[in-house]
Amino acid sequence: MERQVSKNWRMALLSIGMTAALPGAANAQSSVTLYGIADSGVTYTNNQQGHTAWEATSGNESGSRWGLLGSEDLGGGLKAQFRLENGFDIESGRLAQGGRLFGRSAYVGLSSDRFGTLTFGRQYNSTQDILGNLQISSVLTGYSAHPHDNDNINNTFRTNNAAKYVSPTFAGLQANLVYGFSNSTNFSSNNSWSAGLTYTNGPLNLGAAYARMNDPASSAVGAVASDNYYGSESMFGTPLGSATRQQIWGAGGTYSFGPAQFGLLYTGSRFDVPTASSIHFDNYEGSVTYYVTPTLVLALAQVYTHVTQGSLSGHFNQTSTGAKYLLSKRTDLYVNVMYQKASSSIGQAWIESISAPSSTTSQVAAVVGIRHKF
C-alpha cells in the first residue's frame, strides 16, 4: 500500500511537470513550480522543567516545507495564480500545522500589474506579512521570536477562509488587507480582519499593521480554527487560548548601510479573556545583521517584553545571536544562541518553540543545523 501511494505521488508530480512543459496544454503562458525547504538541527536547552535537554529539531531557521506555485497569463497584465504549501516535521515525517496537508498556505486568485492581487484561501494576515519580515526571527531561528509568540508573527496560527488584497506599489507604498470569514450563520463569531502598509525606498524598509480576531478558536471551521491557536501558553495563570478577542498591532523598519542592516520593531497584543482582566503585551526589539563576507552572516537582537493583566505586571528580557554560513545559494549551516530572563512576577522563562518552560526565571537554548532550499 505504501509503495502504491508513493508511486501515485510520483506519477502526479510527473504529470504536473509534463503539463507545465507542453505548449498545447499550457498555452506556453502557464507554469507550475515545485519548491521547498528541508531544515534540521540539534537543539540544547539548559532547563526544561528542571532538566537539560538535547533534541533533534525540524524547521529551526525556516519551517520545513514543500509547495506548488502556479500561474497562468490571461493577457492584458492579468494572471491566475495558486499556491499549495505543505509543512512537515523532518525528524518524524509527520504533517505540521495540526496535520493539515497544506497547512502553511492554500489559496487561488488573480493578480494584475495595474490593480494588484486578490486571493482566497488559507493565508497569512497583514501583521504576519509585514511585521514578520521586520522581526529578527526572519534572519535567526524561530526561537528568537517574542515570548509565547504573543503577536503571532512567528505564525502560531494562520487565517482560514481568507480573502486577501495586496495593492500594486505606488511611490514605494503598498497596502495589504485581509478578511477571514467565520463560515457560520453567526457572521461576527470567529472572524478576523487585518490591514497594513509598507514603504520601501532604497535601503529603507518600513511597515505598520493591525489585526483583530473575534472569538478565535471557538469553532473548527472559522477564521482561526480551534485546533490552530495557542495551546498551553498562559500568563499569570490565564491561558492565552481562552481569549474571546485578540488584537495585534505594530510598526517598525530596517535600514541597510553597506554590509550592515539595522532594525527596530514595536508590537503590541491584547487578549480579552472571559474570566479575568485583559492580558496586554508590549514587545520592543532592536537588531543588527552584518554580512562579514557574502557567505558569512552574523546577527544580534535584544527584545524587551512588558506584560500586564489588571494590577499584575512583569517582563521578559531576551538576547538572541547567531551566525549563518552559506555553502551555496541553496544550502547553509547555522548556529544560534538565545538567553531569556523573566521577572519574578512571571515566574518561569520559556523561549518560543522550546518544548517546555524552565523551572526558574532564566532559560538558555542553542541550536546548530543545516538548511537546504530547493
UniProtKB/TrEMBL annotation:
Biological-process GO terms, alphabetical: monoatomic ion transmembrane transport
Cleavable signal peptide: 1-28
Keywords recorded for this protein, A-Z: Cell outer membrane, Ion transport, Membrane, Porin, Signal, Transmembrane, Transmembrane beta strand, Transport
UniProt GO cellular component terms: cell outer membrane; pore complex
Name this polypeptide is given: Porin
A Pfam family: Porin_4
Residue span(s) of domain Porin: 19-343
Membrane topology: Multi-pass membrane protein
Subunit structure: Homotrimer.
Gene3D superfamilies tied to this protein: Porin
